[in-house]
Amino acid sequence: MLVIVSHTRRVQSLYKRALRNIQACFNGRCLYRYNAVLMRKRFDDNKGIKDMTIANDLIEKGENELFKGMHDAPLKFINSPGGVAYQRVVETPDWVLDYWHPLEKAQYPKYFARREKRKKEYIKMWLNEYGNDSSFEPPK
Hints:
Number of domains: 2
Membrane topology: Peripheral membrane protein
Protein name: NADH dehydrogenase [ubiquinone] 1 beta subcomplex subunit 9
Low-confidence stretches: none
GO cellular component, one term: mitochondrial inner membrane
Oligomer: single chain
Family: Belongs to the complex I LYR family.
Subunit structure: Mammalian complex I is composed of 45 different subunits.
Helix content: 55-70%
Number of helices: 5
């Protein structure tokens, strides 16, 4: 799928990636802020360029510079894609509730009554849509 990204979004993305790279490269808040201010000045110096060919050329050069100067271990948020805890919390499947003990189910009578009703509705909908073909044999 072709996605057209505006010039503004490309600049914003480049700036944010540059700051994240600076954050990965420099320990300590003071060093990070100093280099972040220098990076901001570089972007602000080219803010007024109206010629899109020059602006696109600057973005290309900036992305190449970022790629060449990328930190060996870039910072990743732990729950973001590429982070160490990405998709670690597994959603419990619905069928687990079928194996609850009746005493556990008795603690939530309204919920389980509604759940049983919806399960029967789902089975009925399935049979109406796909039928009850008993000649079907699963592959071996």
